[in-house]
Amino acid sequence: MKTNLHTFYSTLQNNTISGAFVGQNILTYKEITSTNDLLKQLVANFKPLPEGTVIMAEHQTAGKGQQQNGWHSEAGKNLTCSLLLYPLFLSPQNSFNLIAAVGLGVIKSLQQILGNQTRLKWPNDIYHGQKKLGGILIENSIAGNAIKSAVVGIGININQENFPAHLPNPVSVKQILSENYAIKEVLLQICAGIEFYYLKLKAGKSEEIKQEYLDNLYGFGRKLKFQTKDEIFEGEICAVSPSGLLGVKKENETVFYDLKQIKFIFN
Amino acid sequence: MDIKQIQDLIRFVSKSGVNEVSIEQQDFKITIKTNQPQTAIVTTTVPAATAETTAATPTITVTTPVVTTPAAEDTSKYITIKSPMIGTFYRSSAPEKPLFVNVGDEIKSGDVLCIIEAMKLFNEIESEVSGRIVKILVENASPVEYDQPLFLVDPA
């Protein structure tokens, strides 16, 4: 680990940072447990680590958000990366805005490759049609009323074609396009997308971001089936609250749900 | 009801094995709870005319299984660390991982105290003070509101 960190630090110093910042420093590792964990360690050890620093793993052995599904991505076939932001301008209470901005950056970039069927599934999964293409997992470090740093972990299935049978509905870029796609290419597009929406958030345009988030949300304004602990019902996603709760209109009433309270039912 | 009677009552309730006992008299109401962590909360309700002056809400810590002196704890010198957001409070980064902090631990500014999870966004809450953890006010994996007190810290 130590040698890794030192190599990393010298690489950083040799890089020059131009106008764009997200993805100006990309560090690629053959195999690590979790890109989020490594990036958090780097933030703690090398201050100040430039905003926009990206860590990419060819093989991530203990990625977050995958483990509970008992699934490890095939080595070298998918995008597993983490990037660093310092959203000091954002109050922790408004951190859903960060989820929305990052999610939009990812989804708008992917739509350029895959078309408009690629959507965000509330709150921050990446879907193509009714199939899961990837996910985003953000870890903030908060002191007082400031978000000191945000480590944004992104996992997207790129060239993997065989998935464990117990996964409900996986899909990869290759399965959609019927051809291999360069992982680094996707990463660079996503970095540009995240930077665009992050700067928009920083410029105070959170209302615009919220509207765009809704417009790119899977099932927004359509009748969908949902399950709660009491019932299965048909409803329409009509809003997302400031803290990120999902507003579903059932008959004439809108109810806001937390993550654990509602499930999407796919056909 | 005097202090002695309250003490006796707390002792009685903590031995009885019940979780909660409430007794209400004309101008007096007492609720004793013994669920984890074992605490007893004594509240007094004063007649409406003097409601403005209600200030007596002593919190009594009951150490398992024996009762300590039910005098109001002086918390004024302690610093309260509050939740910066709505979410779910976690004392470790994963169920099998060690707790970030325990009561009695010495902490310094920058140490991670807990995680507040909201919408799959994991927020590590760092301490801005150095000192000793006196009390953890929220149960692991329970929901917290914005500004809800989480920890009492005795500053160094």
β-sheet strand percentage of chain B: 35-45%
CATH architecture of the largest domain in chain B: Beta Barrel
What overall form of chain B do the CA principal axes indicate?
A: elongated
Q: Determine the structural class of chain B based on helices, strands and strand pairing.
A: mainly beta
Helices and strands of chain A, in N-to-C order? HEHEEHEEEEHHHEEEEE
Describe the structure.
Chain A has six helices and twelve strands. By secondary structure, chain A is an alpha+beta fold. A seven-stranded mixed sheet of chain A has the order 1-2-3-7-6-5-4, with helices on both faces. In chain A, strands 11-10-9-8-12 form a five-stranded antiparallel sheet, with no helix packed on it. Chain A is globular, with a radius of gyration of 19 Å. The relative contact order of chain A is 0.14. Chain B folds into two domains: about 5-65, no CATH class; about 80-155, OB fold (Dihydrolipoamide Acetyltransferase, E2P), CATH 2.40.50. In chain B, about 10% of the residues lie in helices and about 35% in strands. In chain B, the strands form four sheets. In chain B, strands 5-12-10-7 form a four-stranded antiparallel sheet, with no helix packed on it. A four-stranded antiparallel sheet of chain B has the order 9-8-6-11, with no helix packed on it. A two-stranded antiparallel ribbon of chain B has the order 1-2. The longest helix of chain B is centred in the first third of the chain and has 14 residues, at about 5-15. At the A-B interface, helix 3 and strand 6 of A face strand 8 and strand 9 of B.
